[in-house]
Amino acid sequence: MKVTRFLMIIIFAFTVIGTAKADNDRPIRFEQLPEKSKEFIRKFFSEKDISYIKMESEFLFKSYEVYFVDGSKVEFDKRGEWDNVECKKRKIPDGIAPDKIARYVEKNHSNSKIIKIDRDSRSYEIELDNNVEIKFDMRFNVIEYDD
Q1: Where does 91-147 sit in CATH, by number?
Q2: In the chain, what are the domain boundaries?
Q3: In terms of Cα–Cα distance, which of 83, 39, 82, 75 is closest to 55?
């Protein structure tokens, strides 16, 4: 009984702490980004003006979002690796999408451009400028197709 009560108190405490820290977004300067994020921006978005950068902190999770004046956005994880690249008015820069994905789009959707790409530990998902969404596994096999 005492163990159950103790566990309930611990769970409640973590819930309160997590809730208090949730939605803890704050603006940061470019220099405060992880080095990998800065290198990525310099390589692929050097000609773009940054509108603002924010860091999101939750209990054990941290991420970064970089917004550009033209509406483009890049999201990074706590290590500075990109998770999401979105370009509203043009295709994502060459070299961001893995070669096999870029070749697939060129072969099967030659009149379309990748305007958004997401990745996680299991897959890549792209959106084309014709609103087609394609999901690839980590071996670049198509696993979902939504038109």
Answers
A1: 3.40.1420.30
A2: 25-90, 91-147
A3: 75
- 146: tokens are 């939504």
- Residue 107, amino acid: K
Residues in Cβ contact with 13 at an 8 Å cutoff, skipping those fewer than 6 apart = none
Contact indicator for 112, 83 with CB cutoff of 8 Å: no
Specify the pTM: 0.82
Contact (CB, 8 A) for 101 and 140: yes
**What percentage of residues in the chain have a pLDDT greater than 70?**
84
H or E segment at 103? helix 99-108
Compute CA distances 32 → 21, 37, 80, 95, whole Å.
Answer: 20, 10, 11, 25
Please name the helix (run of DSSP H) or strand (run of DSSP E) that holds residue 44, with its range, or none. helix 35-44
Say how far apart CA 20 and CA 135 lie, in whole Å: 35
Q: Which CATH architecture has domain 25-90?
A: 3-Layer(aba) Sandwich (3.40)
Tens-place pLDDT, residues 6-50: 545 555 555 545 544 455 899 999 999 999 999 999 999 999 999
Here the tokens at position 24 are 């803890």
